Amino acid sequence: MRQREHTSTVRVLPWALVAPALLWTLLFFVLPFLAMGLLSLTPHEGSGITLSNYRQFFTNPSYYWAMINSLELTAMVTVISVLLAYPFAWILAEQVPVHWQRLALLFAVLPFWTSYVVRSYSWLLALSENGIINDALMGSGLFTHALQLANTRVATVIGFVHFFVMLLTLTIFANLKQLSPSYRKAAADLGAGPVNIFIHVILPLTLPGIMVGAFLTFVLTIGDYITPQILGGNNALVMSQLIMMQIGRRGDFPLASALALILMAVVTIAYIACARWLKIERT
Amino acid sequence: MSVALVDIKNISHNFGAVTVLTDVSLAITPGSYTVLLGPSGSGKTTLLSILGGFLVPSEGCVLIRGEDCTDVPPARRPTTTVFQDYALFPHMSVGSNVGFGLRMKGVAKPERERRARDILAIVGLAQAFDKKPHQLSGGQRQRVALARALVVEPAVLLLDEPLGALDLKLRRQMQDELKAIQKRVGTAFVHVTHDQEEAMALADHCVVMNNGRVEDEGTPERVYAQPATRFSATFMGESTLISGEVTKIKGNTTIVKTAFGSVPIVATAQEGAQVTLAIRPEHLLLIRKARSIPFGNARVTAVVFQGSFKRVLADSTSKSGPPFIAKVPVELQVAVGDLVSPCCHIEDLVMLTR
Amino acid sequence: MRAPVKFLSVGYAAAIYTFIFLPVIVLVVFSLQSTAFPIPPFTGPSLRWYAAVLNDTRLTSALINSLIVASISSAIAVALGFLSAWGLARFVLVGSAAMRSLITLPLTVSYLIIGMGLVILFNMAGLPKSLLTAGIGHVVMNLPLCFAIIYSQMGDHQINIERAARDLGAKEWQVLLMVTMPVMWPAIFASLFLSMTFSWDEFVISFLLTRFDTTLPVEIWNLLRSGLNPKTNAVGSLVFVVSVTFAIILELILLRRRPS
Asked: What is the pTM of this model?
């Protein structure tokens, strides 16, 4: 709801208010994008317009495999995180006594306060050959020698899942709490037991929230550099690592730009798919 | 005398230290339309929740069709509830919503759909079967909620302030429809409301509640004409209340001494008891008539035009006199500041002992 | 049916909580390691690594840099976000929807790409990498968030109290200062807090856009290059404890505010 003001400053004031933010966004976000776009069309050496950077992506296996790795990793992380977080959020929202819920939730997200870099490092410690997990596995007698857990894709998945279980628990919990209790009462009134209430009422009504959470997981995972780099080592490089490599070691900004734009395109496609699904759900 | 379908015996309930219902007993007969009428906090919604199985009462029991259902959960109880916010499942179509209870009972799909369509036709929404709730208006959603609750053929249908969210015109329309549907389907309805006009329009059994107790019970006509308590006299419609004391009892006539003299009433009471005489506004006359009981003089403080009548408020000139409320024809000339002589016919006086 | 569900719930919750706290436990326990390797066995509590952290000037100056960048960039982000939110919420402007989309757009882009874009831009402009450039990147990152939070709070009820103020004779700037801002306090505070948290913890943009003076996460990253080291545990634990304390204080302030 916006109102029309009848003072003479109305012409200037609103623009003056909005301009700083707009200018900042245009200058430091849009412009770099345009620069990146332009750069992606120039070759590493020399000048002129060329599609060679994009061609490289589609022809060089180690490049397009990075994208495949990214997508596989992201899919795994998203699915596992949702499957682990939903029951947990459900338990916090339904089984925990109401006045303890806030505290329980706070505890569930406490590790958010460790720095992201530090958290990945801690997982590296925990998963290393002499780390406590291998210690526990060998101590329990299940394994006779240490498993190679660190510097593998498994470690990267664990690192990501750890973060997203916390995040998704938060969002799914909020979603469950804001479901009107009337729905449950009505379903129970009409003869539904707890299982039926969950399948027919709670799950469908929280599905949009899960989708949004899953999308968020997708976007954040595919664009993240730290976790794969620290925990995955140099195995099965993902797009973010590939891009960083071009910036750092090789200084090939045009290629890095092209790769970044390709990554953006994938995220955009996912966004459109998600938005379309949510729109269909509504009607 | 019909056998009670629902027997509520001595229900009391408290939430922690707060008592919301005290020793409530009630019987619901088959095919009746019962209205629980009362202000907020009267306990009417709590009573409905206990009936529906959403609350287990602290004391007392609920018998439905002769069986003790006091702690039977809603799913297994032969009652269904229409909630105040309708609670239609937003992700299901109207048809699926209505068929939900049948599905839970294990009814096969073709049968479910047939019965859902039938009940939707009864509530006047045959064409809405495939629509989603958000595509319907408030009144239509209300009817879907009704259909959903009726299709499972409950022993009693419970309605929790179902018309609260509708505007006046729609409310009046829905009241007529509710009454018609109830007669057609034949299920006993128990309807909670704070609107006394709604209660009078719908009920054949009106239960007036206040502070967790039943104040008065009966047909709306009787409750209105012969209220049992001061609360009933002022909540169900308005009344002018005159306090008095019983001085003598002669057979079945009681003499009540008031500030305006002694009044003979055909009623029974204890000698020396403090009572209240109640007069409905339409029975209070402002001009002295032959063989009427006079109530001194009063100064008019407000005249409110209400379309088909005028509502006149007047303060008694006697210091112990009550505020007078009268309904007068529109043609009557009366203005603020006028001196009037309130009186009424003897048969219009009601004596209240509580 | 109740008892097994309860039992399973407790078991599952315990397992998840263990999973969630595992890295924190590893971090803190081995920060107190007395020998040089942060892996089992645990060799008795020792504060030597905390001392090492406090004596490491690179780390301590990185910490101060983080605080400076976080405070300043967050303040700018909140200010820009507030002004634009107010402007777009209160006045009818051509292309409002487009402007709103533009300002919130960076939320959908990975920090890596934002950082990269800025590296290219600053390269072209000849601006060297520094805390300033990192700070600019952080504002880009946080502005959409501040805008979104504050804009969502500028609902219809807000309009009426501002109208009342104008009706009683207040000028535009008085309305802003004496009515809008005090009522928007929680939203402003929330966006400030969130921005500071994100900026404080942010790695990629800082990594790409700083060179000599860096922020704490970048410095920790550099530490990692030298292998597994309890010193890293110590600095991580310190950051954790300080953040949690800050969050608890915040929670208490908010809880105190709630009745009003």
From this structure: 0.82
